[in-house]
Amino acid sequence: MKFDYLFENKLFSGEAAGLPSRDEIEQKYKWNLTDIYLDDDEWEKDFSYVDSKVNGYEEYKGKLSTFPDLLLKCLKFDEELCTKLEHLYLYAMLSKDCDMKVTKYQAMDDRINYLYSKISAASSFIKPEVLEIPDLELMDIVAGNAELQKYSHMFEDWIRTKKHTLDKEKEELLAMAGEVTSAPYNIFSLFTNADLKFATIKDEEGNDVELSHGRYGKALYSKDRAYRERAYKNYYKSYIEYVNTLTASFNANLKSHIFYSKARKYRSAREAALNGNNIPLSVYDNLVETASSNLAPMYRWANVKKRLLKIDVLHPYDAYVTLFDVPAKKYGYDESIDIINNAFLPLGDEYLKLLNFAIQNRWIDVFETKAKRSGAYSSGTTYGKHPYVLLNWNYLLNDVFTLAHEMGHNMHSYYTGKNQPFQYANYTIFVAEVASTFNEALLLDYLIKQSTDKKEKLFLIEKALNEITATFYRQIMFAEFEMKAYDKTEKGDSLSSDALRVMYKDVYQKYWGPGMMVDPEEEYTWARVPHFYYNFYVYQYATGYAASATLSNKVLSEGKPAVEEYLNFLKAGSSDYSINILKNAGVDMNSPEPVMAVTKKMNSLLDELENLL
Question: Is 406 one of the annotated active-site residues of the chain?
């Protein structure tokens, strides 16, 4: 059963004062949800149909391993219900996100979650029963049926993970443990978002402000260095005060994932985490080792920051402040469409026609309105329906990049859904950020080349350098720390708060180099990063960024042949393993080249910046 949606931002900040209501926005800037269902009544009919058919799984339960001729019929039945379920989910989600005060759509969303759980439970027998068929016999059955052959890769993947699948009783026991083993993240999330209190400090104007996660992040961009330092040191005080609690939560999370990896007979928690998408450990190792051998651009960037900020010592609270101010410029949505069309010209007519078809046919909900969900996202692949994009346009350059980013996801999802059957009409997290950051790379390259204003060009180059710092090097730094923390725990070493502080300080110093003074507060960053609870997730930001950098360079330098390879990547979905799909597009994530492409790009940007200066 496939049910996977891609979200960029799950936060909703509530109704903002002075925002227009939804009916004040021109129709062309709002989603056309009739592409999914004509109205709520049609949605209700499909909901009733799916709900009434759930018991149909009983016809196949306990029979698949004995009567394999029922296999195709069962898969087609599952596909029919799950396709409709995805349509129901998409309509309810988008309707709710338009106006989160409408209780009707909140209720529809809740009902879909219930129906999804019901179908998940009813269909859970399919994979275990299929795997009861001996491997060779199963593949012979598949080879002898033209329709079943379309599922070959899916069955091969099931067989691949078979040795890590336990018997029904043990699987049930592991499932029962899920509520307990998810507790470390739940505790961390509630504690850091609800219970943790922050100090009140003086802002740039001398006003008293109570720190929060958002205000802290904003403070790091302030031109007032004394304010940045105050915010930084006081923000970390709360984490330092509760370091024992956070250490216990952090270690419990590691041990939960190690427990599952041992139960499923993996050699390590890292192997277990990567095996889901069949990513070799060598990809992770190559990423860390190659980046570690190419840190010179980061050290160079640290020294450039020191020089431009006119400071002798760079501190962590100096890492984000803007170096180059440009006059405030507003970017209208329609104007930005023209900008991204020009930026994406290297991708050719096919891509641009589809992009503009999506825009003209209201796949995008553009403007912020009362009670609309905040942030931005692409809805992901919904088999049989096109994807949608949510924006909250604020006329900033960042909005132009958000549009490019989300349309990268959108085109990836559309191409996948259009060219793959249901079972492969999605893509893994390992490749999920490739198309989005690819689009951002083309946009940034275009803007830098087009700019005739020196200050604007410097500002754009700085944006590119900060993107590499945050999305590439920082995520690899996190990945190295996470790997070391698990390795020590799996060897039986105790990870006290002091041990974690030393480990984090070492990797932070390593990635920023001698130009950075690591303040004592920075040693506690491991205690506040939620991604460390996501089980070897962060490395994929860096691999996705490296892959997109390689692909965008190929498109810009090689033209049509590289464009064809890239479009084939977008169309591949999950019809093969992600590592192979990228390799077919010309990117081998097992080799140092994609990682080094980013380091070379950073050096060339620094050259351009210093030449302008």
Answer: yes
- Sign of the torsion angle spanned by Cα atoms 107, 109, 110, 112: positive
pLDDT at residue 610 in the model: 95
- Token pair recorded at residue 340: 């991204």
Q: H-type helices in 388-526, by residue range?
A: 397-419, 429-432, 434-450, 454-468, 474-490, 497-512
The 3-state DSSP class for residue 528 equals coil
Exposure string for 116-146, b = 16+ CB within 10 A, e = fewer: beebeebbebbbbbbbebeeeebbebbeeee
Alpha helices in 278-396 (DSSP H): 281-292, 296-309, 333-343, 348-360
Closest to 18 (Cα-Cα) out of 258, 369, 291? 369
CATH architecture of 246-263+266-326+468-613: Orthogonal Bundle (1.10)
The ranges assigned to domains in the chain are: 1-19+327-452, 31-165, 197-241, 246-263+266-326+468-613
Q: What is the DSSP string of 458-496?
A: HHHHHHHHHHHIIIIIHHHHHHHHHHHHHHHHHTT----
Nearest Cα to Cα of residue 282 among 595, 601, 598, 597? 595
In whole angstroms, how far apart are CA 94 and each of 34, 280, 406, 470, 493?
11, 37, 15, 30, 48
Buried b (16+ CB within 10 A) or exposed e, 319-340: bbbebbeeeeeebebeebbebb
Residues 31-165: name the CATH superfamily. Oligopeptidase f, N-terminal domain (1.20.140.70)
Reported CATH class of domain 1-19+327-452: alpha beta
Whether pTM > 0.85 for this model: the answer is yes
Which regions in the chain score pLDDT beneath 70?
1-17, 168
Question: pLDDT by residue (tens digit) across 315-352?
Answer: 999 999 999 988 778 999 999 999 999 999 999 999 99
DSSP-derived pairing of the beta strands 389-393 and 364-367: parallel
Per-residue confidence (pLDDT) for residue 494, from 0 to 100:
85
Residues 65 and 129 sit within 8 Å (Cβ to Cβ): yes
For position 19, what pLDDT does the model report? Answer: 84
Residues 6+ apart with CB under 8 A from 392: 367, 368, 372, 374, 375, 376
Fold of the CATH domain 197-241: Helix Hairpins (1.10.287)
* Alpha-carbon gap, residue 7 to 405, rounded angstroms: 12
For strand 389-393 and strand 208-210, is the pairing parallel, antiparallel, or unpaired?
Answer: unpaired
Judging by DSSP bridges, how do beta strands 377-378 and 389-393 pair with one another? antiparallel
Of 86, 129, 406, 523, which is the active-site residue? 406
What's the confidence (pLDDT) of residue 166?
81
Predicted confidence at residue 584, as pLDDT, reads 95
**φ and ψ of 435, to 5 deg:** -65, -35
CB of 429 within 8 A of CB of 540? Answer: yes
